[in-house]
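Changelog note: in this version the structure field was regenerated for every chain. One regenerated record is shown below for reference.
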Amino acid sequence: MTASQVPAADATLRILSHLAAQRGPVQASTIATALNLPRSTVYHLLAVLQEHGFVVHLPEARRYGLGVAAFELSSGFSRQQPLSLLGRPLIAQLVDRIAESAHLAVLHGRDVLYIVEERAPRRPSLVTDVGVRLPAYLTASGRALLSALPPAQLRALYPNAAAFAKRGVVGAAGAPRNSAELRAVLERVRSEGFAVEDGEVTEGLASVAVVVRDHSGWPAAGIATTFPRENISREHWSELAAQLGRTAAELSRRIRGRS
């Protein structure tokens, strides 16, 4: 069964997705125009969504925004840890293919939070165990995620030099020290299509990472591999990134993102 066979459900989900992508509440007419839907349909669906708590109406402003029920769906998503469940087998398959350790991380404020860790046989233990947080700007997975953020959000996360506190991470001397240096790093990530760090988290270890995007193009997670620096020469890091990219594309597909 396709979306065209259930038009009301399709339109309802499109309205919710549109509201989730906005900076704040919007008018019903704006929704109708953006989604190319009849205004009467939009008003009817908004009324049903409002009744069930998924949408809140601001009568003075004549605008609609997401309601508490939508937030509860988000909380349920977090509780069920679908990224971990969907990502774990893919990361395990990646490790089998490349014979190096790999992990999956999500952005949490200025940190990355590691939610999946798969260590390759006879490879050193890593600091990126499940549940560990590290400053995003120091790590390859964090840089991959930050490179996909809008400029305004990046500025909000790193407004001044205080946001770049090293927090005791070993080997961080070569890491960005201010917003200008971080922007230069992220521009290289966008240009090359993958992020790297070389001894900035743990001396002697390097990492390559790519971003996983959700249905709206937003950075949902970062996939990275970490390996002893002498194992893989830098000229082969792009080949490694291509392997990660295939895993990222599959995970993106599984969470109904885009490749």
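Spot check on this record: The chain has two domains: 3-74, 81-254. Residues 81-254 form a domain with the Beta-Lactamase fold (CATH 3.30.450.40).
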